Amino acid sequence: MPTAKVPKRAGRRLAGHATGSRSRREISASELPSELSMTDRAYAELEEMIVTLRLEPGTVLSEAVLAKRLKIGRTPIREALQRLSRDGLVNILPRRGILVSEINLHSQLRLLEVRRELERLMARAAAERASDDERKKFATIAESMRRASLKSDAMAFMRLDQEFNALISVTARNEFASRSMGLMHGLSRRFWYQHYRETADLPLAARLHAEVAEAIAERDPDRAGAASDRLVGYIESFARSTL
């Protein structure tokens, strides 16, 4: 099977002048929750820019240019890039600089082998351990996912997916599973964003997420685990279809 990569384009430039559609809405630091630290804000903005391919694979990143573009200091930018390196979204190369990592189908399939087991464990744990307030949040996410499904709203789906992942990470009450999953979310969402227009059934993906969220909201660990398996099964079939 060939490696799946974004086609190289002429003139990849330093971040701040990245190629890609300018019609996609970029968030600013002022729109993020005020309780986030500057490093968290830098990480959130850069992670979304990489996942949505506004910073394409192979793009050379400059701390100075990113700091100017995001209006955030260089120290938070540097710390955010270190976190993104741990997530596998950027590569920090001695004497070569910082590059956005390439997208690799084989790596994505190996990731899904691990993700299937962790997703099921965390979905079941969240159904058992989430508080009443957290269950209400899952119910809200499920409702919003179904609306995104009806509208085929890709950006709404992407952001709801990130919110869902963050909430399940907290409500599972298992820091080891949460840390492991945290390393996979950005890579998974970027792979989805690269290919969903070609091969994905976005309404189905949103509905499958909604089913997991609803099962957690209703305190049903068996249903949550089964819904999680259906979701990851679809994601794997989607990944293979990109061939």
Number of domains: 2
Mean pLDDT: 87
Q: What portion of the residues fall into strands of 2 or more residues?
A: under 5%
Count the beta strands.
3
What is the fold named in CATH at topology level of the largest domain? Four Helix Bundle (Hemerythrin (Met), subunit A)
- Shape assignment: globular
- The succession of helices and strands, N to C, reads HEHHEEHHHHHH
Q: Identify the strand order in the major beta sheet.
A: 1-3-2
Beginning-to-end CA distance, first to last residue: 7 Å
Radius of gyration: 18 Å
Low-confidence spans: pLDDT under 50, at least 5 residues? 1-13, 16-30
CATH class category of the largest domain = Mainly Alpha
What structural category arises from helix and sheet content? mainly alpha
What's the CATH architecture of the largest domain? Up-down Bundle
- Helix amount: 55-70%
Supply the number of helical segments: 9
Largest sheet: 3 strands, antiparallel
- CATH H-level name of the largest domain... which superfamily? GntR ligand-binding domain-like
